[in-house]
Write a structure and sequence with these properties.
With about 280 residues, the protein is of the alpha/beta class. It has a single domain, classed as TIM Barrel, CATH 3.20.20.150. The chain has nine helices and ten strands. The strands form two sheets. An eight-stranded parallel β-sheet has the order 1-10-7-6-5-4-3-2. A two-stranded antiparallel ribbon has the order 8-9. Helix 5 links the parallel strand 5 and strand 6. Helix 3 packs parallel to helix 4. The radius of gyration is 18 Å and the shape is globular.
Length: about 280
């Protein structure tokens, strides 16, 4: 089971490998620049070399990169749209430079226009990204917790995005458990997990589900709230995650935790707790 968490790139991007190893990660996720700003400080050439060396030598793979917080790839505001596209292209170019194979994008909001306008803008944003990376980076569309102006809260809409883009090799799916639960995809027991995975299988295809963001939810079912909780301590609960990690359809998937870091649990403790739910580890 390839499992890890989001780690910091503070100081130098290559230090992410050391931090991931210290947390017991066998895969991990990073931002490629300051996630709370539009600007991007140039990558140091020496840090790029060190990072690429670690890709080969560390034994921790694959590395996932996540888009920063500010871009809204469905925005109908011309200024926001321009900045969002610029940020997307910078970050995807960095994936190429660093030989990072997967880049996760969150869903956008179509505030100020119709769903169709936002949907078309979102798809066109992805297509512009693909022009930059070609077949070097796979973009993963992440589901959201849904809500009035959401583009990716509904799995059938994500399937439509992939269909519109038409290149399944380089655009695939990241399922966030907290977001899915908030959007109305139940995960609290065996039947619920089976039903939710059936929706993914019939609309997107399990083969196109690459990554699971494993996060419990402080928000209630169908609340459309995106508030992550420690594994087993939120509304999804321990039984839900036990069913997820032992489901045969998810056997070869990658797992990244984006759980809180506080006095309740650390990243290491959440990773170990999720691993403790895996049955027949030697098998």
């Amino acid at each position: 089971m390839k499992i890890g968490c989001h780690v910091s790139i503070a100081g130098s991007i290559d230090l992410s490998f050391k931090r991931a190893k210290e947390k017991g990660c066998t895969t991990f996720q990073i931002f490629l620049k300051n996630p709370r700003g539009w600007s991007a400080k140039a990558l140091e050439k020496e840090a790029v070399v060190r990072f690429k060396n670690q890709v080969v030598k560390s034994g921790i793979s694959p590395v996932f990169a996540h888009i920063s917080y500010l871009p809204n790839l469905a925005s109908l505001d011309k200024t926001v749209n321009k900045k969002s596209i610029e940020s997307l292209l910078i970050e995807l170019e960095r994936c190429k430079t660093l030989t990072i194979p997967y880049f996760i994008i969150h869903g956008g909001s179509h505030t100020g226009g119709s769903f169709k306008q936002g949907f078309d803008t979102y798809v066109n944003s992805i297509l512009k990204g693909l022009e930059i990376v070609g077949n070097k980076v796979t973009i993963l569309v992440e589901n959201s917790a849904g809500g009035k102006n959401s583009i990716t809260g509904d799995i059938t809409r994500i399937a439509k995005i992939l269909e519109e883009i038409g290149d399944e090799r380089f655009v695939k799916f990241c399922f966030d458990t907290c977001h899915g639960f908030g959007a109305g995809y139940d995960l609290r027991n065996k039947k619920a997990v089976t039903n939710t995975l059936a929706v993914i299988e019939s609309n997107i295809g399990i083969e196109n589900l690459i990554l699971i963001h494993a996060n419990d939810s402080k928000g209630d079912f169908m609340s459309h709230r995106d508030i992550h909780d420690h594994i087993g301590l939120g509304r999804i609960g321990e039984e839900g995650f036990k069913q997820l990690v032992n489901h045969p359809l998810l056997k070869n998937k990658f797992w990244i935790l984006e759980t809180p870091v506080n006095k309740i649990r650390s990243d290491i403790e959440n990773i170990n707790f999720l691993l403790s739910l895996v049955e027949n580890k030697k098998g």
